[in-house]
Amino acid sequence: MTRFRKLGVAVVTAALAAGTLAACGGDGDSGDGGDAKTLKLWHYESANSAMGIAWDRAIQIFKDEHPGVEVQFERKAFEQIQQNAGMIINSSEGPDIMEYNKGNATAGLLSSQGLLTDLTTETTKRGWDSKLSPSLQTTARYSDKGVMGEGNWYGVPNYGEYVMVYYNKDLFTKHGVTVPTTYDEFTKAMDAFVAKGVTPLAEAGAEYPAGQLFYQLALAKADRKFVDDYQLYKNPVDFKAEPLKSGAQTFADWVAKGYVAKTSASLKAEDMGTAFISGKAPMIVSGSWWYGRFKNEIKFNWDSFLFPGNKFHAGSSGNLWVVPAGSKAKGLAYDFIDITLRPEIQALIGNNGGVPVAADASQITDPKNQKLIENFNTISQQDGLAFYPDWPVPGYYDVLVSGFQSLINGSKTPDQVLDAIAKPYGEGVKEITGK
Amino acid sequence: MALTQTSAGPQRPAVRPEPVRTPRKRRDGGAAYWLYLLPGAILFVLVIGVPLGGTLYLSLTKWSGVGDPTFIGFDNYTRLFQDEVFWTSFKNTIAMIVAMVVVPTLLGLLLAAVLFDVIGRRFKPRTAAALRAAFYLPQVLPVVVAGIVWGWILRPDGAFNSLLDVIGLGALQHDWLGDPDTALPTVMAVMIWVQIGYPVVVFMAALQRVDPELYEAAEVDGANWFHRFRSITLPQIRPETFVVALTCTIAALKVFGPVFALTRGGPENATNVPSYFAYYTFFKKLQVGYGSAISTVLTLIIIVVAGLFIWLQYRGERQDREV
């Protein structure tokens, strides 16, 4: 028995040692780190994207203005940050400033746990709030429960995104279809394509596009109160009433009429995008994140228009700069955020196919980019950013994907789909608000 | 351990003679064994034991992944057993066992016997080896890569539907992975393709250790191929069959990669499996406690199934020795 006891002691000692090592996360200095000589910066934008290009320049400007400060930049994967951010910034290995996903389940969750620095004072002092419209500020501010829209500032966005209709001008001309400006003209244009044997809208049931199309259709009958109720839990949402009922029914009608292919349930966003890029699809309804790629890869004439008839559009600020509570160089982090909001950096975002939030329009030279930004400014100024349908509760993305795959397949009625997506929404909201 | 006992028969004495023992030596040898086991034991505790203990503890809590977990007892388990998706995922696991264990083992057995006994004899051994390698190829491919490629093949405008069109079966064209009725059978078919090479290789290796004289004697006695297969091949390679069945069953119970790459559990949970359900709950819904409960139940099932297989194998060996 002695042998077993000794072995047991050794094992327990090893396990405790491992536990102790794992728990050795430093608390970090919570001061502003005015004398810090290093800024550890992480983001997940690809080097040739609009934001990647702009932030490379911002880092250069930061270095020029902070001689003697070393910038330790690491490019991370989106999933890497999304799944591990809590653990990373709770340890001594975290960055001083990091790009992070906006929304209740991400930045909201971390802020409610005290892991992010409250940027309210700095935002007012440096005037960041005056550069961002109220609907852009929604994703930057979080309540003590981590619900976006009100409370303190825990992040600063510096680009925007929104959903629009991209169309192939050459296919419109070839089939004699007029570019629509109203909802009725939009459906007539799609009828015209169907009559010619062409499916007008490429779709992707296995990923976000189908849910976003449903949301666009619902938003046609929505007001700000609905958006606030749905996204910010201000009041309970009735899924069997307008606008969601109309969104689901119209989606099913569009599948039935052949506007959306019945065989698109298993397709992914990339499939939809490449169908458009290759000239097979006359239109897609998707986000501004495609813009730069379309500019680079499409050989035919193409353009975009806002979803006809809608005041509200799926869209929001881009992701946020956040400063982890354990950052040892907060002052430097604030300086960097400030640089990314300067006209020079904002213009770089705009000129590379991104949507800046504080750009001087005269500095955007490309007409296509100008249109992209003008449309965003139109939505933003009319308080029309309605965020995204999967935001309200964690895991809702997959719920919507599953629901709208059923509508594309015709395996469920709009009523059944609304039931299927209402239940997880209710459970998720209860989990967050306790109501 | 039973493995040291290699022969048995009517000559065996009724009472086993006691081995000569030298107590001092045995004690020293025992201590040395424990010393050698210690690094492995420490690693086991650190790599398996501590995470398992952590998962068990978290399964009794409510936790979003940051902040402090709240202890809630067995609430996650109560919720789990009432969760429709959990039961659907286990129902799909049975389909995965069919696709990853039953069909590949049966088919693998047949293919290995044909390759070894027919192809290997009538053609050059190199032909059988090349075919064996061809069957094994899907096992070499990373499963996510295979999943993505199959996803391309099976998409509505993919190669499979084009092939159906070319051979005049265009009416059968379908969104194979997008339709809840066809998604699971389609994933099962892909899994059979992935899995088939493993039993073929193991069974062919097993067949090489079977004494050829047994086959020759059977042939002299007039046994045809099927008789030889049933009376010699199957009993002789039973240990390997157990190993294949056990490892494939465990692989089927915890299958994740192909489901993630092909369907993400959809459409409508038609292809959801426990490990994907645990991942989704853990990382997407940020319900770490509930995800841990799913993982714990899955681990328990795997331990029970593995124990059952080992017991069956042990019992089989014991029966063999007693014959």
What does this structure look like?
The complex is a heterodimer of chains A (about 425) and B (about 325). Chain A has two domains: about 1-160 and about 320-340, Periplasmic binding protein-like II (D-Maltodextrin-Binding Protein, domain 2); about 160-315 and about 390-435, D-Maltodextrin-Binding Protein, domain 2. A five-stranded mixed β-sheet of chain A has the order 2-1-3-11-6. Chain A has about 425 residues and is α+β, with helices and mostly antiparallel strands. Chain A is globular. Chain A contains 19 helices and twelve strands. Mean pLDDT of chain A is about 85; it is low at about 1-30. With about 325 residues, chain B is mainly α. Chain B has 14 helices and two strands; from the N terminus they run αββααααααααααααα. Chain B has helices spanning about 25-60, 75-80, 85-120, 125-140, 145-155, 160-165, 180-195, 195-210, 210-220, 225-235, 240-255, 255-260, 275-285, 290-320, and strands at about 60, 70. In chain B, strands 1-2 form a two-stranded antiparallel sheet. In chain B, α3 crosses α8 (about 195-210), α11 runs antiparallel to α14 (about 290-320) and α13 runs antiparallel to α14. The interface of A and B includes residues 11, 266 and 395 of A.
Q: How are the SSEs placed, and which strands pair?
A:
The complex is a heterodimer of chains A (435) and B (323).
Chain A: H1 2-22, E1 38-43, H2 50-65, E2 70-75, H3 78-89, E3 97-100, H4 104-112, H5 120-126, H6 128-131, H7 134-137, E4 141-142, E5 152-153, E6 156-157, E7 159-168, H8 169-174, H9 183-195, H10 208-219, H11 224-232, H12 244-256, H13 269-277, E8 283-287, H14 291-297, E9 302-305, E10 315-317, E11 320-322, H15 330-340, H16 343-351, E12 355-356, H17 367-381, H18 396-409, H19 414-433
Parallel strand pairs in A: 1-2, 1-3
Antiparallel strand pairs in A: 3-11, 4-5, 6-11, 7-8, 7-9, 7-10, 7-12
Helix pairs in contact in A: 2-15, 2-16, 10-12, 10-18, 12-19, 18-19
Chain B: H1 23-58, E1 61-62, E2 70-71, H2 75-81, H3 84-122, H4 125-140, H5 143-154, H6 159-166, H7 180-195, H8 197-208, H9 212-220, H10 225-236, H11 238-253, H12 257-262, H13 274-284, H14 288-322
Antiparallel strand pairs in B: 1-2
Helix pairs in contact in B: 1-14, 3-4, 3-7, 3-8, 3-11, 4-8, 11-14, 13-14
